[in-house]
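Form 7-S
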Amino acid sequence: MRRRNLNTVTAGPPGLSRRRLLQLGGSVAAAGSAGSVLASCSRAPADGGTTGGGGGGDDNTFTFYTNAGHAYDTWAEVIKQFEADHGVTVNWQKFQWPDLTTRLQADVSSGNVPDLTEYSGGDNTMSFVTTGDVLALDDYIAEDGAEMGFPDDWQDAAVTPWQHEGSTYGIQLQLTCQQIYYNKQMFADAGISGPPDTWDDLLAIATELTRGNVHGIALNQDASYSYPWILQAGGTLYDNDAEEFLSPHAAAARALQFQQDLCHKHQASPVPVASNDYSGPQKLLSAERAAMIITGPWDIKPIREGSPDLDLGLGLPLQDEERLTHLAGSGVFIPAKSKHPDLAWDLVKRLTALETELALTEESGQTMPRKSWAEHPDITSDPVTQKLAEALQYTVDWGQAVAPSGKLPVITDAYKTLYQSVVLSNKPVDAEMQNFLQAAETAHNG
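Output:
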C-alpha cells in the first residue's frame, strides 16, 4: 500500500493503491494481530440466504444502504468483487442519516427491507433491535469470528454498543472520535509549542489567539460536539445507578457553562449558527479564521483538499476531571427480513477486513475499529493518523445507557434544544438544564 503523508497532500482526490484488495478476491477477514489477513468467505453461498421474508430485491439483486457521504471508491471496489464472486447485482442506495432512518422505518413497516444497511452507531440501532427488526449475528460470529478477528481485534468501545441482552446485532465499520485539530503555523507564530491538554490550557490559548476576525477556537452548532465536554467534566448522559440524566448535574452544568463562556464571555469562539450543517468550524479552520476546532477524521479530507498548505496538527481529547471523548462512527446490521442474510454477512466481512480499512483510511482519512489497524505501520508512521489512532483509546459511548429503551432519539432532540439554548442563545444554564431534565424524564418514563 503506497504511503501518503496526510499532512502534506495536495488538493484533489487522493490516488489509491489497492491492488491488494483485488488480489484478495474472497479473502475478507483480518486476524487479531496487526497486518495478518486471512481468507474467510466459506459461509456465504452464491445463491443467497436461507432465512428472512420481505427482501431488498429479486434473487439476483442485493440491496445495500449507506450514508450518502460514504460512497467510497474503496467500498465500490469491494462491492465489484463481491458481485463477481456471487453473480449478483448490488443495488447500492445512499441517504443522508435522517433520510436513512426514515427509509428504514418505512421499509420495516412494509417488510421490504434492504439486505444490509449501514447505520449511525449501535446506540441508534437499538430502536430497531428492541422491536425484533435486526438479525442477531451470534451464529455467524461463532463460526467466523475467530478467523476474522471479531471481537478480539475490535476496540471494546466498538463492540458493546451493538450488543443487547447477550447478543450482537451489528459490526462497527468506522470508529471515530472528536479531538483537537489546530493550525500549527498560527500556534508557532504566537510562540505556542503544542496543542492544549486541559480546559485551562484551551481557554488560555484560545483567548490569546483571538485577534480581529480570527478566533482561537470555533465551536460547532451540532450538539453532539458538546458530548466530550460533559464526559471530560465527569458527567454522563444517564446514570443507571442514580437514575438521573446529565449526572452529576454539577459536572454537566460546568461543561455547558464553559462552552457558553467561550462564545459569549471570552468571545474566543464565534457564536455557532443553528443549521443542519456541521462543517462551519472546519471551514473557519481551513480559511485560517479559527486556530482550533474540535472535530473528527471526517474533516481531514475537506481540510487537506480545501487548504492543502495548512499545517494541520492534532492533539488528544482534552482532559478536565478525565480525558475522554465521544465515540462516533458507523456500522452495519442485517435486517431481520433480509432476503440474503448469508450474502450480507459475507459483505460485512469484506468491508471490515484490515486491507479494506487501511485502503479507506488512505482514501478518506477515516479511522477504524480494529486494533490491528491502529497498530499497523501505515498508521503509526504518519503523525496525523497516529494521533487519530491514539485518541480512540479515550472513547466512551454517550448513549448506551439509554439506547435499549428506544427513547434515545427523543432524548437526543431534547439535549439539542438544551445545547442550542445555552451555547447559541446564551440562556441561563441552570434553567435550561431543568427544562431538559423534565423533558428527558418524561420521554424516558413515557
